Amino acid sequence: MTAHGVTGDPSRSPDGVHADPGPSDPADGVDDVQFRLLGENIPILCWMAKADGYIFWYNRRWHDYCGSTPERMEGWGWQSVHDPAVLPAVMDKWTASIATGAPFEMIFPLRGADGVFRPFLTRVDPFRDGEGAIKRWFGVNTDVTAQLAAEAELRLVNLKLQTVAAEREAILGQLGEGVVVTDPAGRITFVNEAARRLHGVARLDIGPDDYSRSYSLFTESGEPHPAENLPLTRAVRRHEIVEDARWRIRRPDGSEVLAIGNARPVYGDDGTPLGAVLTIRDDTARHAAEDQLAEAIRVKDILLNEVNHRVKNSLQLVTSLMMLQAGKANSPELRQSLLEARSRIGVVAGMHQRLYTTEQHDRVDLSTYIHELSADTIGALGGNRRLDLNFLCPNAIFLPLDRAVPLALVVSELLTNAVKYAFDDDGAGTIDVAIDTEGEEIRISIADNGRGLPDGFDPAASTGLGMRIVTALTRQLRGTLSLPPMASGACFRLTLPQDA
Amino acid sequence: MAAASPPLRLLVIEDEALVALEIESILRNVGYEIVGIADSLDGALAIASGTRPDLALVDMHLAEGQSGLTLAAALKATGTPTLFVTGNCPAEAGAGLAIGCLHKPFSDRSLAGAVAAAREILNGGTPETLPIAFHLF
How many contacts does A have with B, using Cβ atoms within 8 A? Predict the structure, then answer.
Protein backbone atom coordinates (compact mmCIF):
# COMPACT_ATOMS: atom_id res chain seq x y z
CA MET A 1 0.00 0.00 0.00
CA THR A 2 1.50 3.21 -1.10
CA ALA A 3 -1.21 5.83 -1.08
CA HIS A 4 -2.77 5.11 2.34
CA GLY A 5 -1.40 4.38 5.72
CA VAL A 6 -3.25 1.93 7.91
CA THR A 7 -3.56 4.58 10.59
CA GLY A 8 -4.85 7.35 8.37
CA ASP A 9 -8.23 7.79 6.76
CA PRO A 10 -7.65 6.75 3.20
CA SER A 11 -10.99 8.22 2.10
CA ARG A 12 -9.73 11.64 2.79
CA SER A 13 -6.68 11.07 0.63
CA PRO A 14 -5.91 14.05 -1.51
CA ASP A 15 -5.28 11.64 -4.39
CA GLY A 16 -7.54 13.06 -7.11
CA VAL A 17 -7.82 9.73 -8.93
CA HIS A 18 -10.11 8.42 -6.24
CA ALA A 19 -12.57 11.26 -6.55
CA ASP A 20 -13.57 10.25 -10.05
CA PRO A 21 -14.19 6.54 -10.42
CA GLY A 22 -15.52 6.43 -13.92
CA PRO A 23 -17.17 3.39 -15.54
CA SER A 24 -13.87 2.69 -17.16
CA ASP A 25 -10.48 3.97 -16.48
CA PRO A 26 -8.32 4.05 -19.54
CA ALA A 27 -5.56 5.25 -17.23
CA ASP A 28 -5.00 1.81 -15.78
CA GLY A 29 -6.31 -0.06 -18.82
CA VAL A 30 -9.28 -1.80 -17.20
CA ASP A 31 -12.81 -1.74 -18.56
CA ASP A 32 -15.29 -2.26 -15.76
CA VAL A 33 -18.53 -1.87 -17.73
CA GLN A 34 -19.34 -5.54 -18.24
CA PHE A 35 -18.61 -6.38 -14.66
CA ARG A 36 -20.83 -3.58 -13.43
CA LEU A 37 -23.71 -4.83 -15.65
CA LEU A 38 -23.29 -8.30 -14.23
CA GLY A 39 -22.89 -7.07 -10.66
CA GLU A 40 -26.03 -4.94 -10.67
CA ASN A 41 -28.17 -7.99 -11.32
CA ILE A 42 -26.87 -10.56 -8.84
CA PRO A 43 -28.54 -11.03 -5.47
CA ILE A 44 -25.32 -10.87 -3.45
CA LEU A 45 -23.49 -7.73 -2.39
CA CYS A 46 -20.45 -6.89 -4.50
CA TRP A 47 -18.09 -4.07 -5.21
CA MET A 48 -14.86 -3.06 -6.95
CA ALA A 49 -11.82 -1.28 -5.57
CA LYS A 50 -8.72 0.13 -7.12
CA ALA A 51 -5.35 -1.43 -6.48
CA ASP A 52 -4.91 0.73 -3.36
CA GLY A 53 -8.22 -0.44 -1.88
CA TYR A 54 -10.25 2.60 -2.76
CA ILE A 55 -13.77 1.30 -3.52
CA PHE A 56 -15.26 3.16 -6.41
CA TRP A 57 -18.33 1.00 -7.13
CA TYR A 58 -20.96 -0.96 -5.14
CA ASN A 59 -23.79 -2.89 -6.77
CA ARG A 60 -27.47 -2.06 -6.15
CA ARG A 61 -27.91 -4.91 -3.75
CA TRP A 62 -25.26 -3.38 -1.49
CA HIS A 63 -27.06 -0.09 -1.26
CA ASP A 64 -30.43 -1.82 -0.91
CA TYR A 65 -29.10 -3.80 2.04
CA CYS A 66 -27.15 -1.01 3.76
CA GLY A 67 -29.62 1.76 2.92
CA SER A 68 -26.60 3.71 1.68
CA THR A 69 -25.82 6.03 -1.20
CA PRO A 70 -22.83 5.76 -3.58
CA GLU A 71 -21.51 9.03 -2.23
CA ARG A 72 -21.45 7.87 1.41
CA MET A 73 -19.91 4.52 0.57
CA GLU A 74 -17.27 5.59 -1.90
CA GLY A 75 -13.63 5.07 -1.02
CA TRP A 76 -13.53 4.01 2.60
CA GLY A 77 -17.07 5.02 3.50
CA TRP A 78 -18.01 1.38 3.98
CA GLN A 79 -16.48 1.52 7.47
CA SER A 80 -19.69 3.24 8.65
CA VAL A 81 -21.75 0.01 8.15
CA HIS A 82 -19.24 -2.13 10.12
CA ASP A 83 -19.43 -3.12 13.74
CA PRO A 84 -16.88 -0.85 15.46
CA ALA A 85 -15.74 -3.75 17.61
CA VAL A 86 -14.83 -5.86 14.56
CA LEU A 87 -13.66 -3.07 12.29
CA PRO A 88 -10.00 -2.96 13.46
CA ALA A 89 -9.57 -6.65 12.63
CA VAL A 90 -11.20 -6.11 9.22
CA MET A 91 -8.90 -3.14 8.55
CA ASP A 92 -5.80 -5.10 9.58
CA LYS A 93 -6.67 -7.94 7.28
CA TRP A 94 -7.79 -5.78 4.36
CA THR A 95 -4.77 -3.48 4.43
CA ALA A 96 -2.54 -6.52 4.68
CA SER A 97 -4.14 -7.98 1.55
CA ILE A 98 -3.72 -4.66 -0.26
CA ALA A 99 -0.07 -4.58 0.79
CA THR A 100 0.71 -8.16 -0.22
CA GLY A 101 -1.82 -8.78 -2.98
CA ALA A 102 -3.18 -11.83 -1.14
CA PRO A 103 -6.86 -12.69 -1.56
CA PHE A 104 -9.02 -11.67 1.40
CA GLU A 105 -11.57 -13.88 3.11
CA MET A 106 -13.40 -13.12 6.34
CA ILE A 107 -16.82 -13.28 7.95
CA PHE A 108 -17.82 -10.00 9.55
CA PRO A 109 -21.06 -8.21 10.34
CA LEU A 110 -22.55 -5.51 8.14
CA ARG A 111 -25.34 -3.26 9.37
CA GLY A 112 -28.51 -3.36 7.29
CA ALA A 113 -30.83 -0.48 6.55
CA ASP A 114 -32.95 -1.78 9.45
CA GLY A 115 -30.00 -1.23 11.82
CA VAL A 116 -29.43 -4.96 12.31
CA PHE A 117 -25.92 -6.43 11.85
CA ARG A 118 -25.85 -9.65 9.84
CA PRO A 119 -22.82 -11.85 9.21
CA PHE A 120 -21.39 -11.77 5.68
CA LEU A 121 -18.81 -14.04 4.21
CA THR A 122 -16.57 -11.64 2.33
CA ARG A 123 -14.18 -12.67 -0.37
CA VAL A 124 -11.97 -10.22 -2.24
CA ASP A 125 -9.74 -11.29 -5.13
CA PRO A 126 -7.20 -9.22 -7.03
CA PHE A 127 -7.32 -8.77 -10.82
CA ARG A 128 -3.85 -8.41 -12.30
CA ASP A 129 -2.49 -7.15 -15.59
CA GLY A 130 -0.10 -8.93 -17.95
CA GLU A 131 2.86 -8.08 -15.73
CA GLY A 132 1.18 -9.35 -12.63
CA ALA A 133 0.47 -5.91 -11.17
CA ILE A 134 -2.86 -5.59 -9.33
CA LYS A 135 -5.31 -3.48 -11.24
CA ARG A 136 -8.55 -4.09 -9.32
CA TRP A 137 -10.00 -5.83 -6.26
CA PHE A 138 -13.31 -7.61 -6.76
CA GLY A 139 -15.29 -8.14 -3.54
CA VAL A 140 -18.41 -10.15 -2.82
CA ASN A 141 -20.29 -10.22 0.50
CA THR A 142 -22.63 -13.15 1.02
CA ASP A 143 -25.17 -13.04 3.82
CA VAL A 144 -24.42 -16.19 5.86
CA THR A 145 -26.98 -15.55 8.63
CA ALA A 146 -29.04 -18.59 7.63
CA GLN A 147 -25.96 -20.74 7.14
CA LEU A 148 -24.50 -19.78 10.52
CA ALA A 149 -27.87 -20.30 12.18
CA ALA A 150 -28.11 -23.72 10.54
CA GLU A 151 -24.59 -24.53 11.67
CA ALA A 152 -25.42 -23.40 15.19
CA GLU A 153 -28.60 -25.46 15.11
CA LEU A 154 -26.65 -28.44 13.88
CA ARG A 155 -24.12 -28.04 16.66
CA LEU A 156 -26.98 -27.92 19.17
CA VAL A 157 -28.61 -31.02 17.70
CA ASN A 158 -25.26 -32.79 17.73
CA LEU A 159 -24.77 -31.81 21.32
CA LYS A 160 -28.22 -33.11 22.20
CA LEU A 161 -27.56 -36.34 20.34
CA GLN A 162 -24.27 -36.71 22.15
CA THR A 163 -26.09 -36.16 25.44
CA VAL A 164 -28.75 -38.72 24.55
CA ALA A 165 -26.10 -41.17 23.42
CA ALA A 166 -24.08 -40.63 26.59
CA GLU A 167 -27.20 -41.09 28.67
CA ARG A 168 -28.12 -44.25 26.80
CA GLU A 169 -24.59 -45.54 27.23
CA ALA A 170 -24.70 -44.80 30.96
CA ILE A 171 -28.16 -46.31 31.47
CA LEU A 172 -27.39 -49.45 29.48
CA GLY A 173 -23.99 -49.72 31.14
CA GLN A 174 -25.63 -49.55 34.54
CA LEU A 175 -28.20 -52.24 33.72
CA GLY A 176 -27.72 -55.67 35.25
CA GLU A 177 -29.44 -57.11 32.20
CA GLY A 178 -27.38 -57.64 29.06
CA VAL A 179 -28.48 -55.59 26.06
CA VAL A 180 -27.45 -56.15 22.42
CA VAL A 181 -28.70 -53.94 19.57
CA THR A 182 -28.50 -54.59 15.84
CA ASP A 183 -29.13 -52.65 12.66
CA PRO A 184 -31.84 -53.73 10.17
CA ALA A 185 -29.47 -56.31 8.64
CA GLY A 186 -28.88 -57.81 12.06
CA ARG A 187 -25.31 -56.55 12.40
CA ILE A 188 -24.51 -55.86 16.03
CA THR A 189 -24.15 -52.14 16.69
CA PHE A 190 -24.16 -52.05 20.47
CA VAL A 191 -23.31 -54.38 23.37
CA ASN A 192 -23.72 -53.09 26.90
CA GLU A 193 -21.42 -53.84 29.81
CA ALA A 194 -23.62 -56.57 31.28
CA ALA A 195 -23.81 -58.34 27.92
CA ARG A 196 -20.05 -58.05 27.58
CA ARG A 197 -19.63 -59.64 31.03
CA LEU A 198 -22.11 -62.41 30.18
CA HIS A 199 -20.25 -63.30 26.99
CA GLY A 200 -16.75 -62.43 28.08
CA VAL A 201 -16.50 -60.64 24.71
CA ALA A 202 -18.25 -57.76 22.95
CA ARG A 203 -17.85 -57.92 19.19
CA LEU A 204 -19.54 -55.36 16.99
CA ASP A 205 -20.45 -55.54 13.29
CA ILE A 206 -21.29 -59.24 13.53
CA GLY A 207 -24.18 -60.52 11.40
CA PRO A 208 -26.75 -63.20 12.34
CA ASP A 209 -24.85 -65.98 10.60
CA ASP A 210 -21.82 -65.31 12.79
CA TYR A 211 -23.58 -64.75 16.16
CA SER A 212 -23.11 -68.31 17.39
CA ARG A 213 -19.45 -68.52 16.43
CA SER A 214 -18.43 -65.03 17.52
CA TYR A 215 -20.18 -65.16 20.86
CA SER A 216 -19.88 -68.95 21.48
CA LEU A 217 -23.60 -69.65 21.73
CA PHE A 218 -24.91 -73.15 22.29
CA THR A 219 -28.28 -74.78 22.69
CA GLU A 220 -29.42 -75.92 26.13
CA SER A 221 -28.28 -79.42 25.27
CA GLY A 222 -24.83 -78.09 24.31
CA GLU A 223 -25.00 -78.11 20.50
CA PRO A 224 -23.67 -75.07 18.59
CA HIS A 225 -26.71 -72.84 18.35
CA PRO A 226 -28.25 -72.78 14.84
CA ALA A 227 -28.26 -69.16 13.66
CA GLU A 228 -31.81 -69.22 12.36
CA ASN A 229 -33.47 -69.77 15.72
CA LEU A 230 -31.38 -67.49 17.91
CA PRO A 231 -33.71 -64.91 19.44
CA LEU A 232 -31.95 -61.96 17.79
CA THR A 233 -32.04 -63.63 14.37
CA ARG A 234 -35.73 -64.38 14.75
CA ALA A 235 -36.40 -60.75 15.75
CA VAL A 236 -34.37 -59.31 12.86
CA ARG A 237 -35.21 -61.70 10.07
CA ARG A 238 -38.69 -62.92 10.95
CA HIS A 239 -39.83 -59.87 12.94
CA GLU A 240 -40.81 -62.12 15.83
CA ILE A 241 -41.08 -61.15 19.46
CA VAL A 242 -39.21 -63.83 21.39
CA GLU A 243 -39.70 -64.28 25.12
CA ASP A 244 -37.85 -66.37 27.68
CA ALA A 245 -35.67 -68.18 25.17
CA ARG A 246 -32.89 -70.21 26.77
CA TRP A 247 -29.41 -70.98 25.53
CA ARG A 248 -25.86 -71.44 26.73
CA ILE A 249 -22.95 -69.02 26.45
CA ARG A 250 -19.39 -70.36 26.64
CA ARG A 251 -17.01 -67.61 27.69
CA PRO A 252 -13.42 -67.42 26.44
CA ASP A 253 -12.26 -68.38 29.95
CA GLY A 254 -14.22 -71.65 29.63
CA SER A 255 -16.96 -70.82 32.11
CA GLU A 256 -20.52 -71.33 30.99
CA VAL A 257 -23.62 -69.23 31.46
CA LEU A 258 -27.20 -70.41 31.10
CA ALA A 259 -28.89 -67.46 29.47
CA ILE A 260 -32.52 -66.53 29.31
CA GLY A 261 -33.51 -63.69 27.03
CA ASN A 262 -36.09 -61.72 25.11
CA ALA A 263 -35.71 -60.22 21.65
CA ARG A 264 -37.88 -57.96 19.61
CA PRO A 265 -37.66 -56.03 16.33
CA VAL A 266 -37.45 -52.23 16.51
CA TYR A 267 -39.41 -50.07 14.08
CA GLY A 268 -39.27 -46.38 13.22
CA ASP A 269 -42.30 -44.13 13.49
CA ASP A 270 -43.15 -44.92 9.88
CA GLY A 271 -42.82 -48.66 10.42
CA THR A 272 -39.45 -49.15 8.77
CA PRO A 273 -37.36 -51.82 10.48
CA LEU A 274 -34.49 -50.24 12.42
CA GLY A 275 -33.04 -53.48 13.77
CA ALA A 276 -33.59 -55.55 16.90
CA VAL A 277 -32.88 -55.51 20.61
CA LEU A 278 -31.94 -58.51 22.71
CA THR A 279 -32.00 -58.54 26.51
CA ILE A 280 -30.22 -61.32 28.37
CA ARG A 281 -30.28 -62.50 31.99
CA ASP A 282 -27.96 -64.96 33.69
CA ASP A 283 -30.13 -67.90 34.68
CA THR A 284 -27.29 -70.10 35.88
CA ALA A 285 -27.99 -69.72 39.60
CA ARG A 286 -31.68 -70.41 39.24
CA HIS A 287 -30.89 -73.45 37.12
CA ALA A 288 -28.52 -74.70 39.76
CA ALA A 289 -31.19 -74.18 42.42
CA GLU A 290 -33.66 -76.11 40.28
CA ASP A 291 -31.16 -78.90 39.82
CA GLN A 292 -30.58 -79.03 43.57
CA LEU A 293 -34.29 -79.13 44.20
CA ALA A 294 -34.73 -81.90 41.64
CA GLU A 295 -31.91 -83.82 43.33
CA ALA A 296 -33.46 -83.26 46.77
CA ILE A 297 -36.78 -84.54 45.46
CA ARG A 298 -35.05 -87.53 43.91
CA VAL A 299 -33.38 -88.36 47.24
CA LYS A 300 -36.68 -87.89 49.07
CA ASP A 301 -38.32 -90.25 46.57
CA ILE A 302 -35.69 -92.87 47.22
CA LEU A 303 -36.12 -92.53 50.98
CA LEU A 304 -39.91 -92.69 50.78
CA ASN A 305 -39.63 -95.77 48.58
CA GLU A 306 -37.35 -97.29 51.15
CA VAL A 307 -39.72 -96.46 54.02
CA ASN A 308 -42.73 -97.85 52.19
CA HIS A 309 -40.76 -100.95 51.33
CA ARG A 310 -39.76 -101.48 54.95
CA VAL A 311 -43.27 -100.89 56.25
CA LYS A 312 -44.59 -103.43 53.78
CA ASN A 313 -41.87 -105.93 54.75
CA SER A 314 -42.63 -105.51 58.44
CA LEU A 315 -46.34 -105.99 57.84
CA GLN A 316 -45.48 -109.05 55.76
CA LEU A 317 -43.56 -110.38 58.72
CA VAL A 318 -46.59 -109.83 60.94
CA THR A 319 -48.89 -111.68 58.55
CA SER A 320 -46.39 -114.52 58.40
CA LEU A 321 -46.35 -114.74 62.19
CA MET A 322 -50.14 -114.84 62.23
CA MET A 323 -50.15 -117.54 59.58
CA LEU A 324 -47.82 -119.62 61.74
CA GLN A 325 -50.03 -118.96 64.74
CA ALA A 326 -53.12 -119.99 62.79
CA GLY A 327 -51.45 -123.25 61.85
CA LYS A 328 -50.99 -123.99 65.55
CA ALA A 329 -54.55 -123.04 66.50
CA ASN A 330 -56.46 -125.75 68.37
CA SER A 331 -59.91 -124.74 67.33
CA PRO A 332 -61.29 -123.93 63.84
CA GLU A 333 -62.74 -120.69 65.26
CA LEU A 334 -59.38 -119.48 66.53
CA ARG A 335 -57.73 -120.44 63.26
CA GLN A 336 -60.43 -118.56 61.37
CA SER A 337 -59.96 -115.47 63.56
CA LEU A 338 -56.22 -115.43 63.03
CA LEU A 339 -56.63 -115.81 59.28
CA GLU A 340 -59.12 -112.92 59.22
CA ALA A 341 -56.73 -110.71 61.17
CA ARG A 342 -53.95 -111.74 58.82
CA SER A 343 -56.07 -110.82 55.81
CA ARG A 344 -56.88 -107.36 57.27
CA ILE A 345 -53.23 -106.63 57.89
CA GLY A 346 -52.56 -107.90 54.37
CA VAL A 347 -54.82 -105.14 53.02
CA VAL A 348 -52.64 -102.49 54.73
CA ALA A 349 -49.44 -104.21 53.55
CA GLY A 350 -50.78 -104.26 49.99
CA MET A 351 -51.28 -100.49 50.12
CA HIS A 352 -47.65 -99.88 51.03
CA GLN A 353 -46.50 -102.30 48.37
CA ARG A 354 -48.51 -100.34 45.82
CA LEU A 355 -46.89 -97.11 47.01
CA TYR A 356 -43.35 -98.21 46.35
CA THR A 357 -44.02 -100.10 43.14
CA THR A 358 -45.58 -97.03 41.53
CA GLU A 359 -44.19 -93.54 41.12
CA GLN A 360 -46.51 -92.18 43.81
CA HIS A 361 -45.34 -92.20 47.41
CA ASP A 362 -48.33 -90.85 49.24
CA ARG A 363 -51.30 -91.73 47.06
CA VAL A 364 -52.68 -94.79 45.34
CA ASP A 365 -54.86 -95.45 42.35
CA LEU A 366 -57.96 -96.81 43.99
CA SER A 367 -59.41 -98.46 40.88
CA THR A 368 -56.58 -100.87 40.14
CA TYR A 369 -56.06 -101.59 43.81
CA ILE A 370 -59.71 -102.46 44.48
CA HIS A 371 -59.86 -104.52 41.29
CA GLU A 372 -56.98 -106.67 42.51
CA LEU A 373 -58.34 -106.74 46.05
CA SER A 374 -61.69 -108.01 44.74
CA ALA A 375 -60.12 -110.73 42.64
CA ASP A 376 -57.83 -111.78 45.51
CA THR A 377 -60.64 -111.88 48.04
CA ILE A 378 -62.83 -114.04 45.79
CA GLY A 379 -59.87 -116.31 45.06
CA ALA A 380 -58.81 -116.63 48.71
CA LEU A 381 -62.20 -116.94 50.38
CA GLY A 382 -64.40 -118.26 47.59
CA GLY A 383 -63.82 -121.87 48.55
CA ASN A 384 -65.86 -124.17 46.35
CA ARG A 385 -68.14 -121.37 45.22
CA ARG A 386 -68.16 -120.42 41.53
CA LEU A 387 -68.13 -116.67 41.70
CA ASP A 388 -67.80 -114.17 38.86
CA LEU A 389 -66.48 -110.67 39.38
CA ASN A 390 -67.76 -107.69 37.42
CA PHE A 391 -65.53 -104.76 38.04
CA LEU A 392 -66.46 -101.34 36.73
CA CYS A 393 -64.36 -98.24 37.15
CA PRO A 394 -64.39 -95.68 34.31
CA ASN A 395 -61.59 -93.50 35.64
CA ALA A 396 -58.47 -93.75 37.72
CA ILE A 397 -59.18 -92.38 41.19
CA PHE A 398 -56.24 -91.30 43.30
CA LEU A 399 -56.51 -91.02 47.06
CA PRO A 400 -53.88 -90.09 49.64
CA LEU A 401 -52.66 -92.95 51.77
CA ASP A 402 -54.36 -91.82 54.98
CA ARG A 403 -57.72 -92.13 53.23
CA ALA A 404 -56.89 -95.00 50.92
CA VAL A 405 -56.02 -97.40 53.77
CA PRO A 406 -59.31 -97.06 55.69
CA LEU A 407 -61.25 -97.17 52.42
CA ALA A 408 -59.45 -100.33 51.31
CA LEU A 409 -60.23 -101.92 54.70
CA VAL A 410 -63.93 -101.05 54.35
CA VAL A 411 -64.10 -102.43 50.81
CA SER A 412 -62.23 -105.54 51.90
CA GLU A 413 -64.70 -106.16 54.75
CA LEU A 414 -67.71 -105.70 52.48
CA LEU A 415 -66.20 -107.99 49.82
CA THR A 416 -65.33 -110.61 52.41
CA ASN A 417 -68.86 -110.39 53.73
CA ALA A 418 -70.33 -110.96 50.27
CA VAL A 419 -67.99 -113.79 49.34
CA LYS A 420 -68.47 -115.64 52.63
CA TYR A 421 -72.14 -115.13 53.42
CA ALA A 422 -74.14 -114.30 50.29
CA PHE A 423 -73.94 -117.70 48.67
CA ASP A 424 -74.25 -121.34 49.50
CA ASP A 425 -70.94 -123.09 50.19
CA ASP A 426 -70.89 -124.69 46.75
CA GLY A 427 -73.17 -122.27 44.97
CA ALA A 428 -72.54 -119.90 42.09
CA GLY A 429 -73.02 -116.18 41.82
CA THR A 430 -71.80 -112.82 40.67
CA ILE A 431 -70.26 -109.96 42.60
CA ASP A 432 -70.42 -106.50 41.07
CA VAL A 433 -67.93 -103.90 42.21
CA ALA A 434 -68.34 -100.41 40.80
CA ILE A 435 -66.35 -97.27 41.57
CA ASP A 436 -67.20 -93.89 40.17
CA THR A 437 -66.93 -90.22 40.97
CA GLU A 438 -69.79 -87.81 40.86
CA GLY A 439 -68.99 -84.18 41.57
CA GLU A 440 -66.79 -84.18 44.64
CA GLU A 441 -67.93 -87.60 45.74
CA ILE A 442 -66.54 -91.07 45.31
CA ARG A 443 -69.14 -93.81 45.09
CA ILE A 444 -68.31 -97.44 45.57
CA SER A 445 -70.90 -100.17 45.41
CA ILE A 446 -70.42 -103.83 46.19
CA ALA A 447 -73.41 -105.93 45.12
CA ASP A 448 -74.10 -109.64 44.96
CA ASN A 449 -76.93 -111.76 43.58
CA GLY A 450 -76.95 -114.03 46.60
CA ARG A 451 -79.46 -114.69 49.30
CA GLY A 452 -79.79 -111.07 50.44
CA LEU A 453 -79.43 -109.47 53.85
CA PRO A 454 -81.57 -110.37 56.87
CA ASP A 455 -84.69 -108.21 57.27
CA GLY A 456 -83.95 -105.00 59.16
CA PHE A 457 -80.18 -105.39 58.82
CA ASP A 458 -78.39 -102.26 60.09
CA PRO A 459 -74.59 -102.21 59.70
CA ALA A 460 -74.23 -99.59 62.44
CA ALA A 461 -76.06 -101.79 64.94
CA SER A 462 -74.17 -104.93 63.97
CA THR A 463 -71.93 -106.39 66.68
CA GLY A 464 -69.81 -108.37 64.18
CA LEU A 465 -66.23 -107.12 64.03
CA GLY A 466 -66.35 -106.66 60.25
CA MET A 467 -69.36 -104.35 60.40
CA ARG A 468 -67.92 -102.47 63.38
CA ILE A 469 -64.77 -101.81 61.40
CA VAL A 470 -66.84 -100.75 58.37
CA THR A 471 -68.97 -98.39 60.50
CA ALA A 472 -66.03 -96.83 62.36
CA LEU A 473 -63.87 -96.32 59.23
CA THR A 474 -66.78 -94.98 57.18
CA ARG A 475 -67.27 -92.35 59.86
CA GLN A 476 -63.55 -91.58 59.84
CA LEU A 477 -63.73 -91.12 56.05
CA ARG A 478 -66.67 -88.73 56.53
CA GLY A 479 -68.60 -91.14 54.32
CA THR A 480 -72.01 -92.74 54.42
CA LEU A 481 -73.00 -96.37 53.92
CA SER A 482 -76.37 -97.14 52.42
CA LEU A 483 -78.19 -100.34 51.42
CA PRO A 484 -80.11 -99.69 48.21
CA PRO A 485 -83.07 -102.04 47.83
CA MET A 486 -82.32 -104.99 45.54
CA ALA A 487 -84.66 -107.36 43.68
CA SER A 488 -82.29 -110.12 44.70
CA GLY A 489 -79.07 -110.23 46.62
CA ALA A 490 -77.53 -107.38 48.55
CA CYS A 491 -75.81 -104.11 47.80
CA PHE A 492 -73.65 -101.86 49.96
CA ARG A 493 -73.10 -98.37 48.64
CA LEU A 494 -70.33 -96.27 50.12
CA THR A 495 -70.29 -92.55 49.38
CA LEU A 496 -67.40 -90.38 50.52
CA PRO A 497 -65.99 -86.97 49.70
CA GLN A 498 -62.86 -86.94 47.48
CA ASP A 499 -61.15 -84.61 49.92
CA ALA A 500 -61.87 -84.51 53.62
CA MET B 1 -57.05 -104.66 87.25
CA ALA B 2 -60.77 -104.16 87.83
CA ALA B 3 -62.43 -100.82 88.36
CA ALA B 4 -64.46 -100.48 91.57
CA SER B 5 -68.11 -99.61 91.22
CA PRO B 6 -69.65 -97.36 90.15
CA PRO B 7 -67.81 -97.74 86.81
CA LEU B 8 -65.88 -94.69 85.60
CA ARG B 9 -67.63 -93.15 82.56
CA LEU B 10 -65.17 -92.35 79.79
CA LEU B 11 -65.23 -90.35 76.56
CA VAL B 12 -62.68 -91.38 73.90
CA ILE B 13 -61.48 -88.75 71.41
CA GLU B 14 -59.25 -90.28 68.73
CA ASP B 15 -59.06 -89.61 65.00
CA GLU B 16 -57.94 -93.11 64.02
CA ALA B 17 -61.19 -95.10 64.13
CA LEU B 18 -59.50 -98.46 64.69
CA VAL B 19 -57.36 -97.08 67.54
CA ALA B 20 -60.55 -95.70 69.12
CA LEU B 21 -62.14 -99.15 68.83
CA GLU B 22 -59.06 -100.66 70.45
CA ILE B 23 -59.12 -98.21 73.38
CA GLU B 24 -62.82 -98.83 73.85
CA SER B 25 -62.31 -102.58 73.77
CA ILE B 26 -59.41 -102.56 76.30
CA LEU B 27 -61.18 -100.27 78.76
CA ARG B 28 -64.51 -102.13 78.54
CA ASN B 29 -62.68 -105.35 79.32
CA VAL B 30 -61.43 -103.88 82.59
CA GLY B 31 -64.86 -102.60 83.62
CA TYR B 32 -65.04 -99.00 82.45
CA GLU B 33 -68.02 -97.55 80.67
CA ILE B 34 -67.41 -95.80 77.33
CA VAL B 35 -70.03 -93.11 76.86
CA GLY B 36 -68.93 -92.22 73.35
CA ILE B 37 -66.22 -91.98 70.71
CA ALA B 38 -65.48 -88.82 68.76
CA ASP B 39 -62.71 -87.70 66.40
CA SER B 40 -63.28 -83.95 66.35
CA LEU B 41 -63.65 -81.00 68.70
CA ASP B 42 -67.33 -80.41 67.94
CA GLY B 43 -68.20 -84.09 68.07
CA ALA B 44 -66.45 -84.48 71.45
CA LEU B 45 -68.13 -81.45 73.02
CA ALA B 46 -71.55 -82.59 71.78
CA ILE B 47 -71.14 -86.01 73.41
CA ALA B 48 -69.62 -84.48 76.57
CA SER B 49 -72.53 -82.09 77.12
CA GLY B 50 -75.04 -84.91 76.65
CA THR B 51 -73.31 -87.57 78.77
CA ARG B 52 -71.24 -85.66 81.39
CA PRO B 53 -68.33 -88.19 81.34
CA ASP B 54 -66.01 -88.55 84.36
CA LEU B 55 -62.87 -88.40 82.20
CA ALA B 56 -61.98 -87.71 78.56
CA LEU B 57 -59.12 -89.56 76.83
CA VAL B 58 -57.86 -87.09 74.27
CA ASP B 59 -55.49 -87.55 71.31
CA MET B 60 -53.36 -84.53 70.42
CA HIS B 61 -54.11 -84.83 66.70
CA LEU B 62 -57.80 -84.59 65.86
CA ALA B 63 -59.75 -84.71 62.62
CA GLU B 64 -60.00 -81.52 60.56
CA GLY B 65 -56.58 -80.41 61.82
CA GLN B 66 -57.83 -79.56 65.29
CA SER B 67 -55.64 -79.76 68.37
CA GLY B 68 -56.20 -81.83 71.49
CA LEU B 69 -55.01 -78.85 73.55
CA THR B 70 -57.93 -76.76 72.32
CA LEU B 71 -60.32 -79.59 73.12
CA ALA B 72 -58.84 -80.11 76.61
CA ALA B 73 -59.33 -76.43 77.38
CA ALA B 74 -62.94 -76.55 76.14
CA LEU B 75 -63.66 -79.72 78.12
CA LYS B 76 -62.11 -78.17 81.25
CA ALA B 77 -64.52 -75.24 80.92
CA THR B 78 -67.43 -77.70 80.98
CA GLY B 79 -66.00 -79.53 84.02
CA THR B 80 -64.72 -82.63 82.23
CA PRO B 81 -61.11 -83.59 83.16
CA THR B 82 -58.76 -84.78 80.41
CA LEU B 83 -56.11 -87.45 80.09
CA PHE B 84 -53.97 -87.15 76.96
CA VAL B 85 -53.40 -90.40 75.04
CA THR B 86 -51.11 -89.44 72.22
CA GLY B 87 -47.97 -89.98 70.22
CA ASN B 88 -47.22 -86.26 70.41
CA CYS B 89 -47.04 -85.36 74.10
CA PRO B 90 -47.65 -81.63 74.47
CA ALA B 91 -45.23 -81.50 77.47
CA GLU B 92 -45.53 -78.22 79.42
CA ALA B 93 -48.26 -76.97 77.11
CA GLY B 94 -50.54 -79.65 78.57
CA ALA B 95 -50.01 -78.58 82.20
CA GLY B 96 -53.19 -77.20 83.71
CA LEU B 97 -55.27 -78.67 80.89
CA ALA B 98 -54.92 -82.38 81.63
CA ILE B 99 -54.16 -84.73 84.50
CA GLY B 100 -51.39 -86.47 82.61
CA CYS B 101 -50.25 -87.95 79.34
CA LEU B 102 -50.01 -91.57 78.19
CA HIS B 103 -47.64 -91.93 75.26
CA LYS B 104 -48.51 -94.05 72.25
CA PRO B 105 -47.93 -96.79 71.48
CA PHE B 106 -49.33 -98.15 74.75
CA SER B 107 -50.01 -101.61 76.09
CA ASP B 108 -53.38 -102.75 77.45
CA ARG B 109 -51.83 -102.69 80.93
CA SER B 110 -50.49 -99.15 80.75
CA LEU B 111 -53.75 -97.78 79.31
CA ALA B 112 -55.78 -99.35 82.09
CA GLY B 113 -53.15 -98.26 84.64
CA ALA B 114 -53.16 -94.66 83.40
CA VAL B 115 -56.96 -94.44 83.69
CA ALA B 116 -56.81 -95.99 87.17
CA ALA B 117 -54.18 -93.46 88.26
CA ALA B 118 -56.32 -90.61 86.88
CA ARG B 119 -59.31 -91.95 88.76
CA GLU B 120 -57.36 -91.98 92.00
CA ILE B 121 -56.28 -88.37 91.48
CA LEU B 122 -59.85 -87.34 90.67
CA ASN B 123 -60.92 -88.98 93.95
CA GLY B 124 -58.39 -86.87 95.83
CA GLY B 125 -55.79 -89.60 96.27
CA THR B 126 -52.22 -90.09 95.08
CA PRO B 127 -51.42 -93.11 92.90
CA GLU B 128 -48.68 -95.29 94.36
CA THR B 129 -47.25 -96.35 91.03
CA LEU B 130 -47.61 -95.01 87.52
CA PRO B 131 -47.59 -97.23 84.40
CA ILE B 132 -44.75 -97.12 81.91
CA ALA B 133 -44.95 -94.27 79.34
CA PHE B 134 -47.35 -92.32 81.54
CA HIS B 135 -46.66 -89.06 83.39
CA LEU B 136 -48.65 -86.53 85.36
CA PHE B 137 -48.63 -82.80 84.71
Answer: 18
